[in-house]
Amino acid sequence: APRGRPQLSRTGPLQDAIRAAAKLCCVAEPPAPHWVPDSVCELCSECGTPFDEVLRRRHHCRACGRVLCHPCSARSVALPGWGIEAAVRACDRCHALETLQLPMLLGGDLWSVAGGWTRAKRRLVCLDADQSALSLLPWDDEVGAGACDKARRIELARLRSVEARPPAVLALSCESETVLLEPTGAQAGIRRVAAWSAALSSLLSVYALRREHERLYGGVRAGAASPRTVAVSAPRLQRELQARQAALVAKQAAALRGEAALDGEQPTTPSRAEIEAAREEGERREEQRKRYREVHARMRAKYGLEGGQGQA
User: Quick one: which of 95, 107, 121, 284 has the most CB atoms within 10 Å?
Assistant: First the structure.
């Protein structure tokens, strides 16, 4: 070190004080293991628009870790199943997964499961509280602790593909078997199969993206516990996740039995109106992105801006 200049330690109380000051000054948070580095992305992962330092900065979706521009990641939502309790930035796909598709999977629905030599059995199929497996609960008078003890579980890590087969069958292909689920009840079978197939495919896609990013950029070795698994294993967060899932399952079970919900809410499977509203919202946001790209292109041409770095 040059004479007369003190050499600062990189560890200990001084570094803790520097980190605390950085937080107070709103310095960007350190990248998570599943975040794609800024240096490998010159274009938005969603719309393909080039980044620059002024008009279109880089942002990260906290769920999937992709690098996106602001219009493609303008939403915020809490991600308790990913170990994040506060509302954080998320891309449109992960926002839809967290707000529409995950509540449907966590609440579950009634399916008929082929029993091999025996007749098909009715099961309440739902996603576990920690989002690690699907549980097939016996459909008795009550869905409680006894039913959970007899539940069959399908680990998502073993799930290779999800397929909607005609006329209305949901096929879950695992390592050594394929589980066939047929919808039961009054709800439209084809619509329910399509909704569940899309939700499970989205969830598996995010898991695959995170594992790939953690391996490439986060130094997480294959076979090691993922940071998400470690984060959601905290006892307090486990209790909150279990309470959320229990409430959704109880509400859906009551709706399936034909009981009038106290708040008048409908079963968690999205209705035709909700799907149409989501489609219109997607079209509106796509038109907004188109106008934003046009303005951005004019500004780049006017000021001669080049691609640069930025992170949030």
Answer: 107
Buried b (16+ CB within 10 A) or exposed e, 73-111: bbbebebbbbbbeeebbbbbbbbbbbebbbbbbbbbbbb
- Two structure tokens written together for 151: 């539940």
| Gap between the Cα atoms of 162 and 29, Å rounded | 36
Residue type at 260 in one-letter notation:
A
Please choose, from the candidates 146, 180, 184, the residue with its C-alpha nearest in 3D space to the C-alpha of residue 166. Answer: 180
Say how many C-beta atoms besides its own lie within 10 A of residue 275's C-beta.
14
pLDDT of residue 184: 80
Give me the mean pLDDT over the 84-112 stretch.
93
Query: From CA 99, how far away is CA 49, in angstroms rounded?
Result: 27
Convert the pLDDT of each residue in 238-254 to its tens digit. Answer: 999 999 999 998 888 88
Cα Rg of the chain (Å, integer): 23
Instruction: Encode burial over 257-274: b for 16+ CB neighbours within 10 A, e otherwise.
Output: eeeeeeeeeebbbbeeee
